[in-house]
Design brief:
Elements lengths: L1 H13 L2 H9 L14 H7 L3 H9 L14 H8 L2 H9 L14 H7 L3 H9 L14 H7 L3 H8 L1
Helix pairs in contact: 1-2, 1-3, 3-4, 3-5, 4-6, 5-6, 5-7, 7-8, 7-9, 8-10, 9-10
Length: about 160
């Protein structure tokens, strides 16, 4: 089973649709995890493999799976700024307000890493901007810490 997990995660990372389709036909566990807790979906999204992510979601991958640190595919997309991947995840029911181990949300990642289009998208889709991380900081606090003026103005409107 570990062998299958490595194969499907590698196929997701490089966006190898043929291999993914074959593994899906063979009923390989789409929610298998590597030693960091990454699922094929988390890996596909983090590596901007839209088609692979879509195939995994349509085949039953868990949209809100969290790695060992509590990170989701949506958090990875927010960190990287992959808006189309975020829209795909949201359309498949991604929870916008899940928190990772330090209490951070996808919205916080977007604010901290200057992904302001992502920030706008998450807010439009209903992300909660009043959640605090484990230090008691809000998304506005984190944007201010980073000097992200654009994020601050988006958050305040």
């Amino acid at each position: 089973m570990i062998h299958d997990a490595h194969i499907i995660i590698h196929a997701a990372r490089v966006g190898n649709i043929e291999v993914l389709e074959e593994l899906i036909r063979q009923k390989v566990d789409l929610n298998s995890r590597d030693d960091k807790g990454y699922t094929p979906l988390i890996i596909a999204c983090y590596n901007n493999q839209y088609e692979a992510a879509q195939l995994l979601l349509n085949s039953g991958a868990h949209v809100n799976a969290q790695d060992n640190g509590g990170n989701t595919a949506l958090m990875g997309a927010a960190f990287k700024g992959y808006k189309d991947i975020a829209e795909l995840l949201i359309s498949h029911g991604a929870n916008l307000d899940l928190q990772h181990g330090n209490g951070g949300t996808a919205l916080m990642f977007a604010a901290m890493f200057g992904r302001n289009e992502m920030l706008q998208l998450l807010l439009e889709r209903g992300a909660n901007k009043s959640i605090l991380d484990t230090r008691g900081l809000s998304v506005e606090d984190l944007a201010a810490q980073q000097g992200n003026e654009i994020a601050l103005s988006i958050l305040q409107n």
